[in-house]
Design goal:
Length: about 350
Amino acid sequence: MTGVVKVQLRADNFGEIVLRSPLHWEAVALFCRTVMKRKEDAERERQLDKQIDIGREKEIIENRKNIIPVIEAIILSGWQNMALRGHRDSGNIFKTFSDDKRNNDGNFRSILRYRAQGDSDMRSYLESSGTIKYTSSTSQNEIIDSCNKVLLNKIVLRVNEAKCFSVLADETADVSGIEQVSLCVRYVKLNTLELHEDFLQFVPAVDMTGKGLAKLIIDNLQQFGIDPIYLRGQGYDGAASMSGKFNGVQAHIKDIQPLAIYVHCSAHVLNLVVSKSYSVTQIRDCLATLGKVRDFFIFPKRKSILRFHIENSSETSTKKSLKRSCETRWIERFNAINDFMELYEYVIEALDTISE
């Protein structure tokens, strides 16, 4: 028992000895300094991260500011149906510019160069030595794809809100020989109750059978985000692969959505009727005469006489020349006949002048 008491007393004395020891307090001070240093280092890292985030945010804002004119130039070119690229469309926009037509760098770069004349920030950005300018062909295509996605998403949203739409489709080969299917939708915009017809996409097609085209249409509608359950109408031409009662596109889509009624495209029907009417003798002779009159005035000297009578007339005419009658498109035939009727009096006066 006495030994246990001695051990306890020694332990109590050890604690007092430790507390009185200079080494203990040096260790405590070192620990406190280490803790404070770690806190300072952590705070410094937080401040550094904050500065990096601020610098990154400024860089993002600056990049967005610089890319906005590029996007607007691309949208303007598309809105005006102008090609973006020219014969030379790489390198510094200002250093590669030349009045030589052989070095034409296209509408896109010309628009940016013109805009930079009144925008010092944009000019300094385009003239800087940096490599990221968002003006390369790759950047142009990415911006065009982004614009396409934005427009497509807006159309899809309106179609799904309408909960009722018709699909329009037609196929044709492009210049490279690839069959392209143009997909459009017709729907009623709910907030204005206006009928809209919007183009969705050109979709390359390999299987040109009715079943293959029907699958292509449904798959792409779903891929765009349009729910086929709201499909209520189909509009195609009269080709067997599209309008066939058993194996046409309309038949296969009806198997999927029975409420999707097929309607033969009205414009295509009218075109067929007008084309068929061309076999009537009187109509054929009339259109042939119009074509010969147009061909007669195609020569510069005769055309100038017709233009002289049009410009010196007391009445104002919106038409200045005769148009060719297309054999396949009824709308161009209509324009040709309409222009001839408006210019009929001037044609007679020009013929009288030439005969004299």
